[in-house]
Amino acid sequence: MKIFVCVVLFAATCCLNFASSTTYEPTWDSLDKRPIPSWYDEAKFGIFMHWGVFSVPSFENEWFWWNWKGAKIPSYIEFMKENYPPNFEYADFAPQFTAEFFDPDSWADLFKASGAKYIALTSKHHEGFTNWPSVNSWNWNSVDVGPRRDLVGDLAASIRNRTSIHFGLYHSLFEWFNPLYLKDKEGGFKTQDFVRTKTMPELYDLINNYKPELIWSDGQWEASSDYWNSTEFLAWLYNSSPVKNTIVVNDRWGKGTPCKHGGYYTCQDRYNPGTLQTHKWENAMTIDKRSWGYRRNAPLSDYLTIDELLKTFVTTISCGGNMLANIGPTKEGTIPTIFEERLRQMGKWLGINGEAVYSSVPWKHQNDTTNPDVWYTAKGGKVYAFVLEWSSSIKLGSPLATSSSSTIDLIGGARNLTWEPLKPSGVKVDIPAWSGLKWCLVLRFNGFE
């Protein structure tokens, strides 16, 4: 059981809607003082999409090229020997990344139905292939080869035309096998040819042309933020860019920056500390337990159930985080049924319990003091308890009634539930039988502290 008592959250990065008059210097000391726009903290739930050339082999995970040619993992080498000609190269997968069934309107409608408030689409992964017509990627992009269309632009348009979801992009700073990057690396990162001609032009292009409200940076771990020119880019992003007042970024901008510098913290993949944090953070996680990209060989047991997904979600938001749930589209541009089902289940649950989620804040207790299957949020003077294991009678150690008129409701169900105080503290709540969703019940406490 993990309990953390605190009533002040995110003192270092209070979340505001603002038109900033502050000028930020290209230093971490200055940039780290920039408040995170409030839309991000209020959103709570987002959808990640890992989609690229790796979606063609769709074997094991999205690091296919590196595991095959870099790490030379035997299972990948054997997979290629058994299924492809001897001289087949990774670039030969690109024409098979066809996206012929990609319907951005249907994607946007699904994301809206899921209850997600923001998304992050892969604009470029570590393979270097861009999902937009980047002039800096020569013919290694989705317009010159494969889909023959601007995937970033098409989805951005549908999201904005059909939903109020905030559009965001994932972008990898580095590329596994780019000769310019490898040359900079070989020289100890004393030159910046790759940054000057590839990484930074791409980032400026994405911001100026697609105006995302979130940049999910990655691939930072081999070189410092000085090599990447990260602080110069972020200063421009916050001061002069077309999204300067709404843009949100994460913390992956150079070796040593995660969980220390940038916007909200991701710290590591699937980060879920279980205790209240002093800085806004995000749990970027996968519905497929083993991969961010689509896997043709994934068994059903490798996917989170809706109960497991909701447990991850409520433990995340109770401690002040957002959950960014990843799905892996196919090379044809479809979202596999298992991902669609999970997203629609999330939307059904949020349609009932959203008042306990959106714009909520952590309560003074995150996890109940006596019941490890109950987590809390608060909003508007009310306390919300997320009950992971359903029971007809639940004992809670944290809520304390402030008067005899205090009440407890089951969201989406009965109001004024029968309850009684416990000694030395807490309450016992009776939950009547009901036919609604039982994945995770939510109790509303009125007049409790």
TrEMBL record:
<protein>
    <recommendedName>
        <fullName>alpha-L-fucosidase</fullName>
        <ecNumber>3.2.1.51</ecNumber>
    </recommendedName>
</protein>
<dbReference type="InterPro" id="IPR031919">
    <property type="entry name" value="Fucosidase_C"/>
</dbReference>
<dbReference type="Pfam" id="PF01120">
    <property type="entry name" value="Alpha_L_fucos"/>
</dbReference>
<dbReference type="InterPro" id="IPR016286">
    <property type="entry name" value="FUC_metazoa-typ"/>
</dbReference>
<keyword id="KW-0378">Hydrolase</keyword>
<comment type="function">
    <text>Alpha-L-fucosidase is responsible for hydrolyzing the alpha-1,6-linked fucose joined to the reducing-end N-acetylglucosamine of the carbohydrate moieties of glycoproteins.</text>
</comment>
<feature type="signal peptide">
    <location>
        <begin position="1"/>
        <end position="21"/>
    </location>
</feature>
<dbReference type="InterPro" id="IPR057739">
    <property type="entry name" value="Glyco_hydro_29_N"/>
</dbReference>
<dbReference type="Pfam" id="PF16757">
    <property type="entry name" value="Fucosidase_C"/>
</dbReference>
<keyword id="KW-0732">Signal</keyword>
<feature type="domain" description="Alpha-L-fucosidase C-terminal">
    <location>
        <begin position="366"/>
        <end position="443"/>
    </location>
</feature>
<comment type="similarity">
    <text>Belongs to the glycosyl hydrolase 29 family.</text>
</comment>
<dbReference type="InterPro" id="IPR000933">
    <property type="entry name" value="Glyco_hydro_29"/>
</dbReference>
<dbReference type="InterPro" id="IPR013780">
    <property type="entry name" value="Glyco_hydro_b"/>
</dbReference>
<dbReference type="InterPro" id="IPR017853">
    <property type="entry name" value="GH"/>
</dbReference>
<keyword id="KW-0326">Glycosidase</keyword>
<feature type="domain" description="Glycoside hydrolase family 29 N-terminal">
    <location>
        <begin position="19"/>
        <end position="355"/>
    </location>
</feature>
